[in-house]
Amino acid sequence: MITSISIKNFRSIESADVALAPITVLYGPTSSGKSSLLYAALVLRNFVLNPNRQADGYFHLGFMDLGGFDACVFNHDAARSVSIAITHEKDGGKAVYGLAFSKTAGTIQQTTQMLTMQAKVSIPYALNQTFPFTLTDGNQSSATPVAEEYTVNWNGISCTVAPKKPTAETQARAQELAASLNASAEIVKAIDIAPHRRGFFKPNYTTAAVSPIPTTEDEMASIIINDANMQGRISVYMEEIFGRDFRWYVAPGTATAFFQTTEKKSRIPVLLVNDGFGVNQVTYLLAKMHRVDVRTILIEEPEVHLHPTVLRNFAKALCAFAKEEGKQIIFTTHSELFLSSILTVVAEGNLGTEEIKCYLTTKEKKSTGFNPQKVEKTGQIEGGLSSFVEAEVADLRKFLGVK
Amino acid sequence: MSDLVIDEWLWSDLAGENSADKQRESFEFLEAVFNKCDRIVIVKASRFDEKAMEFWKHTDLTRRGVAKFWKDRFWYNSDKSVLLDQAQLQDLPAQVANDVKAGDQYLVSAYLTSMASVIVTTDNPLKEALEKHGINCKHRKDFVPRYVAQYGRK
Fold this sequence. Notes:
heterodimer, A: alpha+beta, Rossmann fold, 2 domains, 7-stranded antiparallel beta sheet, 6-stranded mixed beta sheet, 10 helices, 31% helix, B: 5-stranded parallel beta sheet, 8 helices
């Protein structure tokens, strides 16, 4: 799990260190910078997936092109470096992976309990260099100190570790070390987003090639069709949330899959595209969440197109999903009900206070701030939900004749 | 910071049942509590809490607005309210219990459990009974205007 993200000079975020939990909720006024936190994680993911492109390309998120470096650097100040780093827990300690970059050069930093690695690269970077590292811990009590016994090659993203004296034991240890050192990049790769633009707009699909960052409806449909477990898993959640199941079927002799839902009460199957759009977008979202190679899912405004009753079910289902599947979910929301539904899950004892972090996102002049609001066992939150009622207080004062 | 135990008059006033002036003043009172570092003690599923719930369900827009204000600024706010489960309430001393009507006993239990600074009521017999036992109890007509004047929006 990613335990924090540090961002500098990205869009409206001049500098922020944000601690994350299995469930992290970001709320606040429109255009205060909530989504920027999500997009920053995706920019880092883009670098890890393919560093060999112009810096502007890192800002192309698949579902959205943010316009390149000049458009995204804080205050449009090209003299600044955009810096994004994640921290995660590894083997009981902290590991950090980050990138600071300008349009033409960058510095990659990786720190684990054992090693501190830093690489200065030109951008685009073709992964064709290896960099020195320093031993910070080295497991000194071990009989096989890393630096003496192993050759570590690190290209800024991934590591190979080879024993200088290969034996079955040292080779096994080398594999362990490599897995540990590569964990940070793997965690970054395992981030995905369910963006605002989501849903299935056709009655049927044929399988298509799926890119490393699938976002189109055809790609998501292909993921559902190709994963033997996906239909059942989505369906279970759909029944909990909407009281209807989800299935796809292939007409005999064709390679065309039709997506449909069946409401339990009426028992009438309908094509997903003819069901309510709330059902549709949640199907897409659940497919994203269930991708086997995804550990951290970013969701923009899960509440869209959902009735309050359903939204409450959905909030509960998402909390249960995070706990049961061990996945991390980071939301942005404008829905007071969505947040209060999650707080109710805490009050019911089904989500620990350490499993949720809430941030009121605000913008002072040019710069975004993420203000933590501590959640109590009672489901109460430090500062309350005041930001959701500010606009209405003025109306209330008028109604009640308060001067 | 003081913790306040408020009687159900708050909801009658906010509903406008006791005059438009009292409705306005009770809202100003809530705003004053929000602005000052004070908290309101809420006993879950008590008569006070149920009256608040009725506002949440009401079709009148003003009441719904008040309900949202209450929920967002107080009920969910650990800085502004002390939420107590019924099971958390401590028993009343026998002499106090004898002098207080059963329906009002939760107010006194809430006061003792949360070690609140005052109970604000419109019930004169309750006030007299509590004063006899050294419990700080004020009448709404004395407490609220003074509080609003001192801590309300200027």
